[in-house]
Amino acid sequence: MRLLLTFFTLFAATLAADSQPVDASRELDYCARQTRRALHYLQPYEFNRMPRNIMPGQQRWNLRPAVPEEWCSGFWPGVLWMVYGHTGDHDVRKAAEGYTEAIAPIIAQRVYDHDLGFIVINSLLKGYEQTSSRRYRQLALQAADSLATLYNKKVGTLLSWPRHVKDYGGHNTIMDNMINLELLLWADSQTRGSSQRRKQGRSRYYDIAVSHADTTMRYHFRSDASCYHVAVYDTLTGRFLRGVTHQGYADWSMWSRGQAWAVYGYTMVYRYTRQQRFLDFACRVANTYLRRLVETSDDMVPLWDMDYPVEASTEKRTTDNLKHKDASAACVMASALIELDGYAPGHGYREMASQMLADLSSDRYQSRGNNVAFLMHSTGHHPAGTEIDASIVYADYYYIEALTRYLCTK
């Protein structure tokens, strides 16, 4: 481990010496301009239809209904709230409020799957950060109660996809679900001061989140700290059955965005719990991602799966290679590393995040005049052949979040 950390520290120092740090303020201004362009084309607003993707050759967002179920529904409101936080633009805030309110019917219905966490964290909690709205807080707490109903005590994790239990032959938990623990841990932090909370000690929100993180740590990772996309458990006994992929190249491969979800998730769990094992594990999983990134990519943006069989050398920076990239994974990872660096300084995580953001902010990845998104060259679901080499709303969300975190930390 010490040799590995020394390598990453030296690698980060080399990056810092060979490149300029990202100008986060300038890139946030770019995001604001692109957002205003997008809002212009979205008028008159249909708040219940959310931007999802822009495919090659298109210029405007393809929209999907927020209700009854669209897992990306929260990302666009979250982008708007972060742009508003940077600019104070009243028109952007009004749009953010309208799109955020469109989330409310999703919370009122029976929980569909784990993605309720994504939807609420990225919209209501971002809005709550900016406004301290009592309504946003109430709706988010209601959503946390709904999300908690997916918990299986025998397994120790939240069920990700109730509709796919028969398909997988058991209780399925996907790595993406680590992100959704933030809704539960936030709810715990919001209710900690109540008399009921003081009498009972830790809340059920907290216990479920920690159980999920511990169980996932135990079964969802291989010996090299790379992760499966899906862990399958016996629904009745809780026994771990197998690890498989859904969006990755193969059951044994390292799907890049999944590994980034893991780093982001364990870093966030440490933020709320301050339990050292989660910080240590976040670092271990991050180091695996970074080691494989150096081995397989020609820049700091990964292939959509780090075991996907395509040449990616420093001498071959071609358009063909960009079709196999996943900018969204780099955005998630950059945001995670900036926070992780604050808890584990000296490993070079911030320097590597800076170079990720610098690469993402280059003409190789920024959309600029090509379309109204922030970034190009993300991969949604490669095995299904959907959203290949696209601009995708969650890439933009984590890009602007990473830039905001970078600007606000030193």
Summary of the model, kept short:
The chain is mainly alpha-helical and 410 residues long. Helices cover 55% and strands 7% of the residues.
Characterise the protein shown here.
The structure is a single chain. By secondary structure, the chain is mainly alpha-helical. The chain has a domain at 1-24 and 276-410: Glycosyltransferase (Alpha/alpha barrel), CATH 1.50.10.10. Helices cover 55% and strands 7% of the residues. The protein has 17 helices and 8 strands. It has helices at residues 2-18, 24-42, 75-87, 90-101, 104-108, 116-131, 134-148, 165-168, 177-191, 195-200, 204-219, 256-273, 276-296, 319-322, 327-343, 349-360, 393-408, and strands spanning 49-54, 62-65, 151-152, 157-158, 171-174, 230-233, 240-244, 391-392. A 3-stranded antiparallel β-sheet has the order 2-1-8. Helix 9 runs antiparallel to helix 11 (204-219). The longest helix is centred in the C-terminal third of the chain and has 21 residues, at 276-296. It is globular. The model is unreliable at 312-316 (pLDDT under 50).
**Element pattern in H and E:** HHEEHHHHHEEHEHHHEEHHHHHEH
Radius of gyration: 20 Å
How far apart lie the N and C ends?
26 Å
Annotation field: number of helices = 17
Structural key phrases:
single chain; 410 residues; mainly alpha; Glycosyltransferase; three-stranded antiparallel sheet; 8 strands
